Amino acid sequence: MNVTKTFLHVDDDPHDAEFVENELKQLPFNINLRSVRDGIFAREYLEGHGKYADRVQNPLPDMIILDLKMPRSDGFEFLSWLRTQSPPAQRLIPVVVMSSSAIPEDVQRAYASGANSYLVKPVSFSEFHNCVNTLATYWATNVKTSETHALGPG
């Protein structure tokens, strides 16, 4: 399969962002990873504002990996905006929450806000490696996502 999938990774931790990027580069299929550090940048990315206006460089994602605990605008705020106020075609983009929080209220709130999946960030390197690989393989090779690229701005 040579189809390239675009993932948008929204996480304020530069170590986690770098780790996810390095893990995805090792996979035997094509993932175009774009990273932003909070919900405000994620919204600007999806809206195509400012430095994200070039859709060749910054295509709409096939899937979003979203941290919850971030400054300025957290994952809950972004998820709420995405599911209720973003252009209609973008509301369909799958969102996988990847958070260090295992608090049941956070899990419930994420699903209630429209998350498609919730993963707790593993602490160990090998578990994190396996988690990212499983996530990427599933979403990049097994799941048929809505064609948000073809649907335009909404």
Topology (SSEs and partners):
Elements lengths: L4 E6 L3 H12 L5 E6 L2 H9 L15 E4 L8 H10 L10 E5 L4 H9 L4 E4 L4 H18 L5 H4 L3
Parallel strand pairs: 1-2, 1-3, 3-4, 4-5
Helix pairs in contact: 2-3
Would you mind describing this structure in some detail?
The structure is a single chain. The chain is α/β, with parallel strands linked by helices and 154 residues long. The protein has one domain: Response regulator (Rossmann fold, 3-Layer(aba) Sandwich). 40% of the residues lie in helices and 16% in strands. It has six helices and five strands. The protein has helices at 14-25, 39-47, 75-84, 104-112, 125-142, 148-151; strands spanning 5-10, 31-36, 63-66, 95-99, 117-120. The chain has a five-stranded parallel β-sheet, sandwiched between helices. Strand 1 (5-10), helix 1 and strand 2 (31-36) form a beta-alpha-beta unit. Helix 2 (39-47) packs parallel to helix 3. The two termini are 29 Å apart. 31% of the residues are buried. Mean pLDDT is 90; it is low at 149-154.
